[in-house]
Design goal:
Elements: E1 7-12, H1 20-33, E2 38-42, H2 46-51, E3 54-56, H3 80-85, H4 87-99, E4 104-109, H5 111-122, E5 127-131, H6 147-168, E6 171-176, H7 183-191, E7 196-198, H8 206-218, E8 224-229, H9 235-238, H10 242-250, H11 257-268, E9 273-276, H12 289-307, E10 313-318, E11 321-326, H13 327-330, H14 342-350
Parallel strand pairs: 1-2, 1-4, 4-5, 5-10, 6-8, 6-9, 7-8
Antiparallel strand pairs: 2-3, 10-11
Helix pairs in contact: 1-12, 6-7
The structure holds 6-O-phosphono-beta-D-fructofuranose.
6-O-phosphono-beta-D-fructofuranose (F6P) binds at residues 15, 77, 110, 133-135, 177-179, 230, 283.
Amino acid sequence: MDYQRKTIGILTSGGDCPGLNAAIRGVAKPAVELYGMKVIGFANGYRGLMEGHSIELSSSDLSGILTEGGTILGTSREPFKQLVKNQDKIDQMIKNYKKFSLDCLVVLGGNGTHKTANLLKQHGLNIIGLPKTIDNDLYGTDFTFGFHSAVDIATEVIDRIHSTAQSHSRAMIIELMGHKAGWLSLYAGIAGGADIILIPELPYSIDNVINKLNQRHAMGKKFSIIVVAEGAISKAEAKMSKKQFKASRSDMTYSSIGYKIAKQIEEKTNFETRVTVPGYQQRGGTPSAYDRVLATKFGTYALSLILKSDYGLAVGITDNVVSARPLEEIAGKLKVVPKDHMLIKSGFALGTCFGQD
Ligand code: F6P
């Protein structure tokens, strides 16, 4: 097929992260400049495709965006559950896909985005998915772009907390993002030398946390660094049904799990405890060099698929090799930290407490 005539649609969906613009650039820059293709960006995720809110990306639009945080296209969350119930929205996306005479649509996103991508594939659209999220919880790829940038940001926070913890002999809790997975807390916790790391995959016992703090104090270590994933749960909560868990958390008088654990520490010990929640800083700013490279690998690989008219695929990296697998193989599958992950083993070998017996 004459590349001049291929028209690529592209959109960014779900939570933003560093690396989105690098990935857009990886697809669109060579497509426009080397193959004379047309690249149409849709604004604010799938919503832009529904509304036909688009911009044709020119070479100048793609200049200087490699290092830019966020997404030049904007993003939104279109909950998959709402989409499935609303055929009109799906029909609107299909209608605009055809109206813009797209040969394919490249979507940059996480779990929800890939579930919708697979749904559109089932409706006959040519789709390619690129794995994006700071959570790194997308099945089918070792890493998502955005993850390592968030690890770097979170690690810097932990490093800075170390000095104030030491100065005040405090127990310092750093609550990190990650949704239902503990990847970000595990990597940043190990990188930041945390004494205690609590992740959803290893439900914790608060008594084990307290024991670790007391052990440290007994060894003359008057401060402790505790990294808590926002999705961390106690052993008791792990035994609850979804309904019971929801009820127990709605009754929780604390804004998030980090504050609950801080309160428990102060109630059970005399250690001054403070909480830091870096929040959206973990999603902001320029991508790390690693993520710039990863996003560029993914973007250029997506274009190689488009050149072969190879669609319906999710791009990913496994053992440092970029490849693609059918969207239906990964759509909706969460990738959580395996209990025997090498970093958990390293942590245990180091004496890091994961809240386990
Ligand atoms: O998925 C990325 C993420 O930052 C999660 O880590 C976090 O729980 C969630 O998004 C926050 O969602 P929102 O951006 O809609 O507040």
